[in-house]
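Subject: design request, 288 residues
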């Protein structure tokens, strides 16, 4: 096992202050970094291709035994600095009530650019497979405001082979602590785009996949999700919990889809509805 690293006692330590600031979206944007807390998530992060800056461990009462050994060994393999923190210093950074005593400071990745040339080439091909078109299967979050819903939808996109997630300007930050936890590692594997208006993402996606279709989730839509063709390049749009998809994005869509439900139920939670649509698209694609 690697050496346990530098000891930090005070919550006023410059590193502690810098990491604690990452609870705010402004600091995350300025530092291009975010926090990942918990043994399982940190293990997945360190084994992913994302940049990792440091590992902070609670010196007393945190992760122990084989889990601690595995984490420190993973950190050593990636040449990551490991810091041991006092309870007071660690609690300044932690976002959970009962922490497992491990936090990683990760870099926010720059997603790969949209593959314009590849997209057009594949659109003209008569032979498309799930792996060929997976980069054209994307999810747009248009004003989803609950970070838990954002993280859950990223997790579902990962589960159902949607390789890109676009987060419009009014969507909760995908790199906030609650969204990171809810994504269950999906955030580390997908291309997650942030910082642009939803309409800009739709326009960009259409440029790269001109024969693809854009469908929005709408509980009042006339067409059922199972009646739409959701194979090949497709962009699914989930709107805000209160007002749904914005009019500007609706104007750019090919159609609206609803999920069949019992009449006593008015609507579904945004994350649940989005996950069902992602599954339906995956089911259709796998049957091709």
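Subject: RE: design request

Done. Sequence follows.
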């Amino acid at each position: 096992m690697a050496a346990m690293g530098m000891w930090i006692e005070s919550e006023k330590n410059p590193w502690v202050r810098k990491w604690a600031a990452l609870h705010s979206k402004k600091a995350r944007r300025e530092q291009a970094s975010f926090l990942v807390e918990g043994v399982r998530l940190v293990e997945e992060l360190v084994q992913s291709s994302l940049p990792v800056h440091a590992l902070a461990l609670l010196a007393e009462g945190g992760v122990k035994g084989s889990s601690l050994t595995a984490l420190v060994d993973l950190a050593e393999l990636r040449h990551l600095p490991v810091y041991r923190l006092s309870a007071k210093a660690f609690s300044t950074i932690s976002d959970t009530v009962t922490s497992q005593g491990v936090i990683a400071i990760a870099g926010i990745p720059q997603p790969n650019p949209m593959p314009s040339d590849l997209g057009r080439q594949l659109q003209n091909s008569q032979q498309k497979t799930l792996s060929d078109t997976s980069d054209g299967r994307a999810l747009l979050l248009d004003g989803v405001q609950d970070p838990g819903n954002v993280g859950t939808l990223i997790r579902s996109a990962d589960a159902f082979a949607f390789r890109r997630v676009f987060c419009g300007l009014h969507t909760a930050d995908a790199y906030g602590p609650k969204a990171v936890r809810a994504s269950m590692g999906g955030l580390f594997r997908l291309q997650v785009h942030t910082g642009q208006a939803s309409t800009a993402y739709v326009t960009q996606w259409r440029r790269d996949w001109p024969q693809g279709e854009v469908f929005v989730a709408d509980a009042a839509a006339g067409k059922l999700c199972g009646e739409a063709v959701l194979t090949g390049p497709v962009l699914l749009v989930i709107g805000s919990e209160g007002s749904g998809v914005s009019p500007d994005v609706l104007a750019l869509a090919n159609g609206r889809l609803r999920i069949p439900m019992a009449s006593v139920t008015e609507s579904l939670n945004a994350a649940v509805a989005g996950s069902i649509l992602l599954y339906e698209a995956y089911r259709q694609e796998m049957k091709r």
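The chain has 13 helices and twelve strands.
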